[in-house]
Amino acid sequence: MKKILIVISAFIGTVIMANAQHPVSIVGKWRGSLIGFNNALIPFNFEFVATKKDTTLYFINGKELYYGGKLIRKNDSIMVAINQFDTELALSVQKNSTLLGFWRKQNGAGAPTPIEASKENISRFKSTQIQPTNNISGKYDVIFTNDTGKQTKAVGLFEQNGSQIGLTFLRASGDSRFSEGIINGNQLFSSVFIGYSPLLFTGIINADGSIAGEQIGLKSKLNFVAVKNKDAQLSNTTKANSLTKDNQPFNFSFRNIQGKLVSLSDARYKNKAVIVTIGGTWCPNCADEAMFLTNWFKKNQQRGIEIITIQFEAVNDFAYAQQQMKRFKQRFNIPYEQVFGGLANNDSVLEALPSLAEFKAFPTTLFLNKKGALVKINSGFAGPATGKFHTDLIKEFNEIVDELLQ
């Protein structure tokens, strides 16, 4: 491959190839695709937006523009560091207005995922011009089944406009965010990608309105069956009598970004209600929760309440966690304390927090009263893509806090 000279203009974000007669502008909207499980192509959309200062990549998923990162030059390639998820896009510009490259971990671990992108046709899925057989808008009871037969319940939220479809699946851990796609006849296609865990949803819409489909990721596939139910609901709140083992007091001592040990017994938290969230910087639903909590805390801290987030990370190393917590703090302008709890799995959480009776999902939110007693736990976070589920969650959250502060 001939060496490509890339010149990035801060004003117009244009890439010039050494042997091209005309510059290839990267600014604007693109359609990309990744290779998923069983060689399935997972399409996604993104946009390069240029200002006088820099050029930024945003992922496009339905109603959401999600910040990816700043465009930089590294050797002869375009690089976008997606710091929130410790991943990056490494791309080269081709003469025919396409991009070729990889999505990979920043440290080079694991196999890189090939990416191809084009500006010529940015439609996420190809339309066959066959009109949809049904309007599938509404709420659904959903059962996901993996290859071992294990089943997981979810709520499916579908919003159809002509042949266009937006959907999300709400599980105990949270939702699959804004997914965007198309319906051709009785066939459904939708996908989502924000720099982490790309997903493709396909399905057949049956005559009775039920949907049989697949969720395809990079390395695995789940089958699902969805049946419309206007009252579809998940229960995610654990009652107080099952929160801790043998009524043990809840406490911890973990290092924050500065390396200082933080404990609930610190003066800052004494005689105050405290919200403790268990999450990870790698977790998209945790990011949704962080965006909510950041704005909420700025408005409510003066009421006598504090927040601590315990981050469980992909690598059980404080230096790595420190880097990711700094990035997370900068990305979401977090004003409250973050501490490092350990490796991101359920067993690690229970080992680090031995007084917990159980742990179900990242994120999990713990509510402690002014006496330091753990009074309620919410598992998961229903993000903005879930509509009324999200607004109901915020309403419940505020009601719980009001009780804590009485």
Architecture overview:
This protein has helices at 284-300, 318-332, 346-352, 388-404, and strands at 14-15, 24-25, 28-35, 41-50, 55-61, 64-74, 77-82, 87-93, 98-105, 113-118, 138-145, 151-161, 164-171, 174-175, 179-184, 187-192, 199-205, 211-216, 221-228, 237-238, 253-256, 261-263, 273-279, 305-313, 337-343, 364-368, 374-379. Helices cover 14% and strands 42% of the residues. It is mainly beta and 406 residues long. It has an eight-stranded antiparallel barrel with strand order 3-4-5-6-7-8-9-10. Strands 11-12-13-15-16-17-18-19 form an eight-stranded antiparallel β-barrel. It has an eight-stranded mixed β-sheet with strand order 20-27-26-23-24-25-21-22, sandwiched between helices. The protein contains four helices and 27 strands. Strand 3 and strand 4 form a beta hairpin. The chain has three domains: 14-118, Lipocalin, CATH 2.40.128; 138-228, Quinohemoprotein amine dehydrogenase alpha subunit, domain 2 (Lipocalin); 237-404, Glutaredoxin, CATH 3.40.30.10.
